[in-house]
Amino acid sequence: MQDAFQMVSIVISIVLIALVLLQAKGGGLGSLLGGDSGGGGITRTRRGLEKTLFQVTVGFCIAFVAVAILSAIFSR
Known about the structure:
Helices cover 67% and strands 0% of the residues. By secondary structure, the protein is mostly helical.
């Protein structure tokens, strides 16, 4: 059972890395803290494919945390 959790965790990790790399490039932390990179910072709205990609990324993050918690529970 532990091996299954490890394999699922590895697959979700790889997918998460790919999803994060596909996210739109911003100005980094400077734009979030008020820098002038034209990215809009926190108030920027997501639309279309970018919104869907963000929601899928959040879903995979939740799945990763759930698998980690289940793995910890069942490892006892």
